[in-house]
User: What shape does this take?
Amino acid sequence: MGVTTYTQEFTTSVVPNRMFRALILDSHNLIPKLLPQSIKSIEYVEGDGSVGSIKQTNLHEGSHMKCLKHKIDLLDVENYECKYTLIEGDALGGAGKLESLSYEVKFEAIDGGSKVTSTSYYYAKGDIELTEEEMAGGKDKAMGMFKVVEEYLIANPDVYA
Assistant: This one.
C-alpha cells in the first residue's frame, strides 16, 4: 500500500483558539450553517466529540457523494491539533483506489493570527499511484471551507472569542 502525502498551509488574522473551535470543536454546528448548499448536516453517530468519536457529514442530494464518516484519532485542545481518519464514504470507494484517508490539522499562533497546516495522507490500494488531479478536488474543497470559516470569523469578531 502506497502513501501519498499532501500538505497545505495558510495564514490568517484569526487567532488559533477561534479557528480551532470553529473548524474542529464546533464544526458540526457551524459548517452546515455556512455551507448549506453543500452540507445538509454533521452529527456525531458515536461518542461526544472526544477521541474515538465518529462524525458523519451528510451531503445534499445531487452531490457526487452522500455522506462521509470520520473517526477522531487525536484531539489536542491545548495545542490546537486534531487528527482524524475517513472510515466510510464515497471518497474512499468511488474510484476504488483508496484503502483509507487520514488528516492532521494544526493551528499555530503567529504574529497577528494563525498559521493553519493541513496534511492529508492518501493510502492507496496495492501499488496504485494517485495523481495530483485525483487529490485536487478534496484539497480545493477543504481550502474553500477554511476560507469560508475565516471570513465568517473576521466578520464576526465576538464569535468563539
Remarks:
- Strands lie at 3-12, 39-46, 54-59, 67-76, 81-89, 98-110, 113-124.
- The chain is about 30% helix and 40% strand.
- The mean pLDDT is 89.
